[in-house]
Write a structure and sequence with these properties.
The chain has 190 residues and is α+β, with helices and mostly antiparallel strands. It has helices at residues 6-9, 36-43, 70-73, 97-109, and strands spanning 4-5, 61-62, 80-85, 87-89, 92-94, 113-120, 126-135, 138-147, 156-161, 163-168, 175-180, 186-187.
């Protein structure tokens, strides 16, 4: 659980861009260099409409886990591939390719890893996903629907899955992850 600095969110249009985040791609915990697109995203400034759970804390940071239930907060720590704040632009969504590459490589190699992505739906609702590789055929997927008034749930859910499928995203080499082989979604914190 590491707060996302307000400076990271300053590069948002509707969805914030991916910049260096403590513990994320490019940090001392991850020896990969920061994404060039993250720097480009940081220069494209606009403001992010904050939902109640994304209000800044006293130190100016944003925590996507501020209202997370204990099942999410107490999850077993795994090697972090980073947190991405997706920036929606006229040219398409800007994502964190380093964090996504780190996570996809971990999945392909069957290594434990965690990836967090925060984005907005087309209606402007915030959705946070925590995707975790537990083993070669075990994926844990947490989704926070509480910021999406049109979402299928009022809060966090958890799924246990056996795989991850991908499809191309906006931009060269960007993969969008989708869970496969999942059991039923379990509502959390109810």
């Amino acid at each position: 659980m590491q707060p996302i600095r307000m400076a990271t969110l300053a590069c948002a249009v509707l969805l914030a861009g991916c910049a260096a985040i403590p513990g994320g791609a490019g940090s001392p915990a991850d020896s990969r260099p920061a994404s060039p697109s993250a720097s480009a995203s940081a220069s494209a400034s606009a403001s992010l409409a904050l939902t109640p759970s994304m209000e800044p804390t006293a130190d100016g940071s944003i925590d996507p886990f501020a209202e997370a239930p204990s099942e999410v907060l107490a999850r077993e720590p795994l090697p972090a591939c980073g947190i991405e704040i997706v920036e929606r632009t006229a040219a398409g969504d800007v994502r964190n390719p380093d964090a996504r590459d780190c996570f996809w490589t971990a999945w392909q190699e069957g290594r434990p890893a965690e990836f967090v992505t925060v984005g907005l739906t087309i209606e402007g609702g915030r959705v946070t996903e925590v995707v975790r590789v537990l083993a070669a055929d075990a994926v844990e997927w947490f989704i926070d629907w509480s910021g999406d008034p049109f979402g299928p749930y009022d809060g966090w859910v958890r799924m246990e899955c056996t795989g991850i499928a991908t499809h191309p995203g906006d931009g060269p080499g960007i993969l969008i992850f989708e869970p496969t082989g999942c059991g039923p979604e379990t509502a959390l914190g109810t």
